[in-house]
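User: structure tokens for this one?
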Amino acid sequence: MRTETETTAQGGCTVPSAVLDGPVSHAISRVARLHRIAAGRHLRELGLHPGQEFVMTRLWEGGPVRQSELIRAVGLDPSTVTKMLQRLEHAGHVRRRQDPADRRAWLVEATEASRGLLHEVCGAWGELERTTVSGLDEAESGELLRLLRKVEETLCAELASAPECVEAAATAPCAEVPAGGDC
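Assistant:
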């Protein structure tokens, strides 16, 4: 049992002793946090918050959808998506209207004015990609992507087997995404 509050790990990083038994998980957590901050900087320039680009992409690609289906598609908490949609609606990027087939349900759709953002979002993600892998050569970048997909597949499988996580696994973005795919 470790008694130090913090320990210097490989690479000179100081880490809390509680995570010493999970250095890969801790590294993934740190990298994910930094990546989200970097994404936020790029998206802020477009008037978006992190995560909103996924909602918008779903709407641009799939057309109008019930709000409940959108929540399932992006795999986020309903209150988070509702708040996102309120912000996006206020910014003029989405429109919500009652579903004519079911007056209790709401349809969400991207506005025509928001369509110009698609190219800009793709550009922001391209720039984020270049920044993210700028310290890697092509082979390392490919290997990192391969390993991350393998880790994602393992985590998706783990979530799918836990009864309390079945819905989360069903909505997790575990589908294969082509490397260097263009928008």
